[in-house]
Amino acid sequence: MYKNELDRHIQNSSTSNSFVLFGECAYLIDRYTNILTKKEDVCYLSFYYDEYSFSSAKAHLSQASLFGGDNVLIIKSEKKVPKKDLDILVDLCEKNKDNILVYAYYGSDYKTYAKAFAKKSTMSIRFFNPNHGEAVNIISKIAKEKNVDIDNYAISHLLNTHNGDVALSSNEIEKFIVFDKAITTKDIDLLVFGLAQISIDEFIKKLLNKKDFKFDLSNILEHGEDEIRVITAITSYITQLYMFNIYIRVNGAANALEILGYPAPKFVVDEKAAMSLRFKPDVYYKLHNLLLDTELKMKSSGVDKGALLLSTLIRVQKLL
Prior knowledge:
The protein contains 15 helices and five strands. Helix 3 runs parallel beside helix 4. A five-stranded parallel β-sheet has the order 2-3-4-1-5, with helices on both faces. By secondary structure, the chain is of the alpha/beta class. The relative contact order is 0.09. It is 55% helix and 10% strand. The longest helix is centred in the last third of the chain and has 25 residues. The chain has three domains: 125 residues, Rossmann fold, CATH 3.40.50.300; 60 residues, Helicase, Ruva Protein, domain 3; 120 residues, Zinc Finger, Delta Prime, domain 3, CATH 1.20.272.10. The termini are far apart. Helix 4 links the parallel strand 3 and strand 4.
């Protein structure tokens, strides 16, 4: 099943009471997990990633609700829950329609879930990354839910500002709630610093790849970032790379959930893993010392932050 079919079931109140959500778009998996479990007078139990316990999950769906309503079980995981566990949890929902189960799987090995529960009433839904038109419709629905006055043209501009990222654009809608007026493209240009305007991450990647970064740096500073925030962003990025480096050397492969504390797209993990291994531990040590020393100097009075930042970034590239 795909998103459009699920939407029709939701509109017609014909959904099942157990769901397996998976696919390429983590944002839509999150959104529909919330939609499918948003009810009043229910008893919730949620497991996030490594917290999952089969005995607790089974007990929750086996007992009567404390509120006299539905028992809702949410499992969010980047690792596969054993099929035999899911079969039992699904059966508990088949036997008791007051139960609701949502298994949100964020891993990439999801193909088996398309037909895994074909003999059950369970709904298995794959979420693709939305195209531009679909993304506009998603953001439009969110804006209406939040009572934000914004037309599709402005939404399209917002998405373009964030390179089509629905999650980031959705977060911007939250910020617009405080405005008691229609949001225009000019408001978006004024209030939103988007990915389309040279992102700091892209600038840092140029820096670490020893490419010319001066134009990107100028662009970032012109759009409101100050020199100290640029330095702290670089320090944070390099710290993440060092964490990847250590984890891979100890475990043999990267695991975003354990390194970062949240799942990340495979291409992001692969990119950071590859870059992290390019630098030796002593290089990370020297980079951190240089950046932290620069940040301290910038916080002193009477310092030309722009000149200090530029000289520091040149020194960073010499260390690589």
